[in-house]
């Protein structure tokens, strides 16, 4: 946010800081109010905040004119988030668990020596993935440098994450891992200029800011050998800002946060409607920040959320799982009726085994929460889909609880829920649950089936399948008649009643439905990483090289469908063999998707799972040793 001098045609956007007697429409460089006028008419916090905004133009608003008063450097301190008083300060912090590290089993497989031919093939694939990243990165550098994202078809820049350079920060660790050290150093030099005292958005998504920006900075600091202090300094600076979102009466965060209220010291309350993933998925990043700084406040902030979640885990309408929507204001985390491992919930569950690793296994809280959640998910969420090859696979669906005796399975597969296979595989090793490796494999196979079934070779955002019923294998034996009947039933439920059996065939042809799929409510593909994430984890855990082959076919399909002259674009409809594209490339394409593809074809010791924990934006954080 810039405050403009009126004589240049701008409007002073500072009425929340200054009374009308101070805001004069005729200010020029020669008629600034004196320091005494400023200090006498505003609070110290407001004074520091507004003065910083007056004197710090952003690089993303080059057409705006700012004028610094001549006395600025002598009288006015720079605004810092850490100096904003807490209205609801914490008296006793929950500190990081101490004591010796727990004995955690080896996670990665003992890989056999590859043949010369296998190595050449792997390295060729690795080079192709790196080339895709470089193409994307160069497109960003050329068309949208220092902006959040580049539009891969038009070349326009967008700032949907506040204008702090989301793609730049999100890609830092990928640059380092891929050996692009010159670009890494150049990007780090730009990180110094990011101004975390303001943002182009009025409302900040605290979760997205945490996983992309804070996670990106911490990871870049760790993977580069902790050699660049600017990365940690900026992570701390951002952490101070985000901590202010927790300044509520019950210390639950404002997940969609009007950050100016925090800067001004306005009273804040946690949200009455908060998404499960957004309130519960900051554990890794805040814990790592406390580990690196020795300041317990960030760990304390997330520990309070975890304690609340654990206390109510068995009181929800599907015990063991939490509903998608929570009331953070009243700390009611159990009354909702919709449950899923997909969008709006996903990373909460993903973080349980990962946080156990990040804490060195020093307490059992996250293990206990994960184990309870997994048992409930296996009972209610995971289902076997009817499929033409009668393969054993699982899909993570969703649940709607209408009453105690009416619990409805929504047999949908979400791309977002494809992380589940990797989560279950990782936890199976960490918590010594060897039988769950087969569960993980079936979940991965379910997402691979969704990819390989589509005409484009790419999985849609959401599709609906046919859940097998009962325990008998006969109830899951493929027949085309069963598929058509399921399509007809779905048509009727969709208020298209009185359709003849021929209607199912017509719908299948019109919508280009693959065998076993009854509907595709969202046929887009937005360059998502969840499926390759799980393949990467399962490959590193099992050493199964067939997973590399399937990952390669996946990469080829995605690359063929999405590559543009500038970068890579999202797909409108994966049921088309040559799908149309839309002009979007979110930063997770370079942060997550291409990183996981790269690591599938890297040497197994590159970012080993026995040394690193990946946050939900694929930012590896160093495990305690």
TrEMBL record:
It holds the Pfam family Glyco_hydro_47. It is an enzyme of class 3 (hydrolase). GO terms for molecular function: calcium ion binding; mannosyl-oligosaccharide 1,2-alpha-mannosidase activity. Ca(2+) binds at residue 616. GO terms for cellular component: endoplasmic reticulum; membrane. Disulfide bonds join 418-447. The active site is at 208 (proton donor), 346, 461 (proton donor), 530. InterPro entries: 6hp_glycosidase-like_sf (IPR012341), Glyco_hydro_47 (IPR001382), Glycosyl_Hydrolase_47 (IPR050749), Seven-hairpin_glycosidases (IPR036026). GO terms for biological process: carbohydrate metabolic process; ERAD pathway. Pathway: Protein modification; protein glycosylation. The keyword Zinc does not apply. Its cofactor is Ca(2+). Keywords: Calcium, Disulfide bond, Glycosidase, Hydrolase, Metal-binding. This is alpha-1,2-Mannosidase. It comes from Saxophila tyrrhenica.
């Amino acid at each position: 946010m810039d405050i403009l001098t009126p004589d240049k045609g701008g409007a002073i956007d500072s009425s929340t800081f200054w009374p009308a007697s101070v805001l004069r429409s005729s200010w020029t460089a020669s008629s600034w109010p004196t320091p005494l006028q400023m200090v006498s008419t505003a609070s110290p916090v407001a004074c520091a905040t507004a003065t910083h905004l007056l004197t710090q133009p952003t690089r993303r608003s080059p057409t705006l004119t700012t004028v610094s008063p001549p006395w600025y450097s002598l009288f006015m301190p720079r605004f810092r988030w850490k100096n904003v008083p807490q209205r609801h300060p914490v008296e006793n912090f929950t500190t990081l668990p101490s004591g010796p590290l727990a004995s955690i089993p080896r996670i990665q497989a003992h890989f056999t020596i590859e043949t010369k031919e296998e190595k050449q093939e792997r390295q060729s694939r690795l080079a192709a993935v790196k080339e895709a990243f470089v193409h994307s990165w160069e497109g960003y550098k050329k068309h949208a440098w220092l902006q959040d994202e580049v539009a891969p078809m038009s070349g326009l820049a967008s700032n949907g994450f506040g204008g702090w350079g989301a793609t730049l920060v999100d890609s830092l660790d990928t640059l380092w891992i891929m050996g692009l050290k010159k670009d890494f150093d150049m990007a780090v030099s730009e990180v110094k200029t990011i101004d975390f005292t303001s943002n182009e958005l009025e409302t900040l998504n605290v979760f997205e800011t945490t996983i992309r920006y804070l996670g990106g900075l911490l990871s870049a600091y760790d993977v580069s050998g902790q050699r660049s202090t600017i990365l940690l300094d900026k992570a701390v600076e951002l952490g101070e800002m985000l901590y202010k979102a927790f300044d509520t009466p019950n210390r639950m965060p404002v997940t969609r946060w009007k950050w100016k209220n925090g800067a001004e010291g306005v009273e804040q309350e946690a949200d009455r409607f908060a998404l499960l993933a957004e309130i519960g998925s900051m554990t890794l990043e805040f814990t790592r920040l406390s580990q690196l700084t020795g300041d317990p406040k960030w760990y304390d902030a997330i520990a309070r959320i975890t304690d609340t979640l654990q206390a109510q885990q068995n009181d929800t309408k599907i015990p063991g799982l939490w509903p998608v929507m929570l009331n953070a204001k009243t700390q009611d985390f159990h009354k909702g009726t919709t449950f899923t491992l997909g969008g709006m919930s996903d990373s909460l569950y993903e973080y349980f085994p990962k946080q156990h690793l990040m804490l060195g296994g020093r307490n059992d809280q996250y293990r206990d929460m994960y184990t309870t959640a997994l048992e409930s998910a296996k009972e209610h969420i995971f289902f076997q889909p009817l499929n033409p090859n009668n393969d054993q696979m699982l899909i993570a669906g969703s649940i709607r609880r209408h009453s105690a005796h009416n619990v409805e399975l929504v047999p949908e597969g979400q791309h977002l829920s494809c992380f589940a296979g990797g989560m279950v595989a990782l936890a199976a090793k960490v918590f010594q649950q060897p039988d769950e490796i087969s569960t993980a494999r079936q979940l991965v196979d379910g997402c691979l089936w969704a990819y390989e079934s589509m005409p484009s070779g790419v999985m849609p955002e959401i599709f609906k399948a046919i859940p097998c019923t009962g325990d008998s294998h006969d109830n899951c034996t493929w027949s085309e008649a069963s598929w058509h009947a399921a399509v007809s039933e779905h048509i009727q439920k969709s208020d298209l009643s009185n359709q003849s059996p021929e209607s199912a065939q017509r719908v299948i042809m019109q919508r280009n439905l693959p065998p076993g799929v009854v509907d595709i409510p969202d046929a887009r593909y937005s360059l998502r990483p969840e499926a390759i994430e799980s393949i990467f984890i399962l490959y590193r855990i099992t050493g199964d090289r067939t997973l590399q082959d399937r990952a390669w076919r996946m990469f080829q399909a995605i690359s063929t469908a999405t590559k543009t002259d500038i970068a890579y674009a999202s797909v409108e409809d994966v049921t088309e063999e040559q799908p149309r594209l839309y002009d979007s490339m979110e930063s997770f394409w370079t942060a997550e998707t291409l990183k996981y593809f790269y690591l599938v074809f890297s040497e197994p010791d590159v970012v080993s799972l026995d040394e690193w924990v990946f946050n939900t934006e694929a930012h590896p954080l160093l495990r305690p040793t």
